[in-house]
């Protein structure tokens, strides 16, 4: 369970996305950032909207929260853990690390 590992690196997430039961990737960046680059199949809820949209998050699956560099997503990860979501982790380095180390075809900004 993610309770003992609140952070995940991009390489591990890339492997898990190919699993039978992949984690839900929650992208908390703003719409203007999504226009630059985004991960396919990610759930997009801007950071400021997360408290009002908790009902959209699955309680029965692992959630990996991401943003641009991992700062906003860390804050959302901690917020979700305080709301009772035990199986949630922050994506270290955010989409910038993903673009640098997993998918260099994504634009970096």
From TrEMBL:
Listed SUPFAM superfamilies: Rhodanese/Cell cycle control phosphatase
UniProt keyword terms in alphabetical order: Transferase
Sample GO molecular function, one term: transferase activity
UniProt domain Rhodanese: residue ranges: 19-107
Instruction: Please give the Pfam families that the UniProt record associates with this protein.
Output: Rhodanese
- Read off the InterPro entries from this record: GlpE_sulfurtransferase, Rhodanese-like_dom, Rhodanese-like_dom_sf
Quick one: signal sequence residues? none
Put simply, this protein is called Rhodanese-related sulfurtransferase
Species assigned in the record: Thiohalorhabdus denitrificans
Native organism taxonomy: Bacteria, Pseudomonadati, Pseudomonadota, Gammaproteobacteria, Thiohalorhabdales
């Amino acid at each position: 369970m993610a309770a003992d590992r609140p952070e995940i690196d991009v390489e591990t997430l890339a492997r898990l996305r190919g699993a039978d039961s992949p984690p839900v990737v929650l992208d908390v960046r703003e719409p203007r950032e999504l226009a630059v680059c985004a991960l396919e199949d990610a759930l997009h809820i801007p950071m400021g909207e997360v408290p009002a949209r908790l009902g959209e998050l699955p309680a029965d699956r692992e959630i990996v929260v991401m943003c641009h560099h991992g700062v906003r997503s860390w804050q959302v990860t901690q917020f979700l853990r305080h709301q009772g979501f035990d199986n949630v982790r922050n994506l270290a380095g955010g989409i910038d690390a993903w673009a640098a180390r997993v998918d260099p075809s994504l634009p970096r900004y």
